[in-house]
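Fold sample X.
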Amino acid sequence: MSTTEATSSTTANRTGVYLAVLQLVFTLGWTTYVIYLPKLCADVGIAPSAVILILMLDQAIFTITDTAMGIAADKIAPFVGKLGAFVSVLTAISCAAFVALPFVAGTGPGAQVWFIALILIWVVTSSALRAPPLTLLGKYAARPAIPFLSALTMLGYGLAGAVSPYLGVVLRNHDPRLPFVISGVVLLLTALALSKVERDLAQAPAVAKQPVAPAKPLGPVPMFFIASMVILSLGYQLHFSINSTPFFLRFAKPDELPWLMPVFWIGFNIAMFPASVVVKHRGGLVVMGAAGLLGALAVLGAEMAGNLNILIAAQFLAGAAWGCMLMAAVSAALAIGETGAEGKVVGLVFSALALATFARMAAVAGGLQKLPEYAPLLQWAPVACWSVAGAGLLVIAASRMQRGGVESRPKRSSADG
């Protein structure tokens, strides 16, 4: 490795660590919001039954704004320093609204309209922290490094998922004002560093990259990729957020759940890094497809587990599969959008995650998990989602390889577009 390549690699790795921290802090802030939202709504006179509707509205907004922010990032990214400034300004607005939530709620029912307005401001502006920062990887990082950097970035998301059950136990009975202030300040300080990260990437020695062509409309394969991401995300939502707790309660007590639920995220965090090597050489679509099929088997194992040890192992493997899917999806999105549409395609991935979350919340709001006639549907839907989408992705990847598509070319070993 030359000195130029080593310097560029070091800078890119630092960026990956930074993005992991940013995702960790942002996701923990979101978790804090979800933990306290029922109490804050009660303070302003909003009925408990409306809390799930507010959360659904948040996800509906993310579905739109994640893609919109990604497109905006594509337009801003060519101007060095502008993307960091764009994200920092929106994050400042977002954090101000976020920190104000418990203080406004504390004034009583008369502040209900202001409370809802602050939630809307926070959700819309916080989309700037989802897809736009990842645009920097597609713009500056060497193609072979993107899978590893994607794994690093998603590590922050996975660590937040592992910590969230404990956070709920620790914070539930505390005054919300201090956690909101701490979360908001830490997130703002972290986001403000993005401008420096962007300048460091721009000033790093350039690595050899293909000439960038003008952005093109998404073709059928990228659209199938996004549709598959929606299906895979729905499988994850139904399995982890709806089915996992009842699975564990077959063998464990409720107070043991905070120690058992993170098993999924341990598998998630561990599996991404070895899988990134496979993505580097075989492409993201292959890994997404294979992980979907293996994950379906793991979920099936969780469904049929006869004791706690088997269930723990199955949950670990299911989490590992989801980690591989998500890391490979981010890598594939950056490769598909490499003609100047990185933010748009990554934004579509985040929109897919939000849409699946919305669907899961809608199912919960409708009480489907409590209706016996829908029990088989919720039980087997995750297996169906992961196996069908996984098989479809493998078929698409295989057909592209047979045609001598992009994924089979060494110079684009991490690409799927």
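Fold sample Y, listed below.
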Amino acid sequence: RIGGQTRNYIAAIDPSTGLAESWNPNADNDVESISSSNRDSIIYLGGQFANVSGQIRPFLAGVTGSSSSLPGAPVLLAPASGDTLSGKDSALVWGSSFNANSYELQISEDAAFTSIVVDTAGLTDTFFVPHSLSSNSKYYWRVRSANGKGTSLFSAAWYFFNFSPSIQLTVVSSFPANNSMNVATRTTLSITFSAPLDTTVHLEGGVPLFMLTNIDSIGPATWSNGLRTLSVTANLQPNTVYTVAIVAAYGMGGLRLESPYIVRFTTGSEFPPDSVSGVVLSGATGVSPDSAIVGLAVVPDLGHLTSIPPLVAIATTDSSGDFVIPDVPNGTYYPVAAKDVDGDGMINPLTGKDVIAVGAPIVVNNANVTGVVLTWTSFTPISWKQGLSISDSLFLSLPPHSQTRLISGLDVDTSGNSPEWVTGVTNSITKSGFLVTAGGVSTVLPMDSTLYDSLSAFTPFVSDTAANAGVFAANAENAGGRSFFRQYASSGDSVYLLLYLGELKRTQFGLLAPDSGLYWGAQYVALNPKTLMPVSSEMFIGVFRTGAILVATGVKDQIQALPKSFALEQNYPNPFNPTTVINYQLSAVSNVTLKVYDILGRVVATLVSGRETAGTYSVTFDGSRLASGVYLYRIIASGNGGQRFVSVKKLVLVK
């Protein structure tokens, strides 16, 4: 008993002497004030103690002092013990510990931790999103810290209840109805669900994840019938088959669409007679191929298997992975399959458990095509050297005198490893270009003429003369990237690191690149997981041969001076399909809007809307849901000093 209050087995021990140090309880705080001649080695061992107001507070193992000390045990923060872990992005969160380099998290079915279901060490962040836990079950969790000297004691164990949405949402009706013919070329498409949709968990505008094939253009989504009916106006082409696929949808009260919903209709008087059939296989992923989306693309996936290209026909697989895509007109197609495994309403195999597959091109010519085989792809990160080795072997199939123009790494980790290294290669003799992908499904795919024309202007280089991606990634992390990641990831945003190598003056780094020479580029992007809209971005430019940081944006001590004027750059690439990058700069703190319009002046996308500090910015515009054509993008920036900047530029979407 100290000062009349009960303290349970609290001690401060000096490891050098083995003797307990003295303490002086602070009547105004929950923290014990320890006096010691050797504070760099004091270890606190504790359980629970009562503060002066009688409230019980956890007193967890901890460490104070230098890097020679053991780390302190973390303090669990959320969810509170006994609360429910609900929602697709819910995380277990704890406080950072002094002297900790990493953390180990355990989740168990019992309080004694004899039935551990998750034991993950080496975590560098102070949050963890658990997957594959049983629904409506009780779990216990705890965390401990680690550094080069060893590990701390585990934190006090908290428990939570895991909740998974029940699968009860269904589609009641659609307009046009499935298999409708002679649909008007100007019509309203609508889907009615069995319950009101929860628009807070869907993408931008609360719209569920859906796909439309061959749509020329659509208007904004509208809701009716108490959030049960979703409608969009569409401009259709004569004698064309269309497919509407609702991939994922969430209803009020945790309801979820069990499997994708497909509606087909045509503006013609009949459907084409031919079909494409085959099977989706699990491969090494172990992911079941049932209830997957299978579609046909008219262009190759451009070597980037982390998203679905525009499709002209869509179907779903049965419980065995078999599929039949009906009503396919004559043409050459690239089969693609995808599955939203983690149920978050998005298909993103790089950051979650989602899977995707692509097959060899097929030709439909007045006959059915059968026996198409698609196998789920596992995206295991590979190093820069592994990527170069795979790419070198694939280069053997290219025409002689082909030259590397640009290399990009997707969702790169802090060690410089990426699930996909994509190399843009052109050949001035054959006037052809190729995208060489190393990782995932290693492929060589031809690029279209627009991309070839753009990349041909880049300076060619020999990739093995550049610094290792791991070296540059580490430099970017230390220059501010690590702080950026932790800041936005801890807020629930999705953070990605992309690396680029080449003539960055012609890319989204155009405003930062010192000249038209060769450089490394790193771009950290934070996305809102619900809207997929960029929240913030930070970019770094490094020396080609050493990877040393030259220029950075968004960091506390900016290496590059702030812009002296407002500017809106031409988007790159242009024409584009389906994404393009728009750069702009602000010379003062401003209220900024950046919107994209169709030729009739209707807003099709709002890219920026808010207050931003002076600096250089980059945003990505995704036109995958829009029809080919000419669009305009306009920026309006109103500065604190009364400045007003308005600029309009044209971009061209070609599918």
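Sample Y note: The longest strand covers residues 137-147.
Also: Residues 567-653 form a domain with the Immunoglobulin-like fold (CATH 2.60.40.1220).
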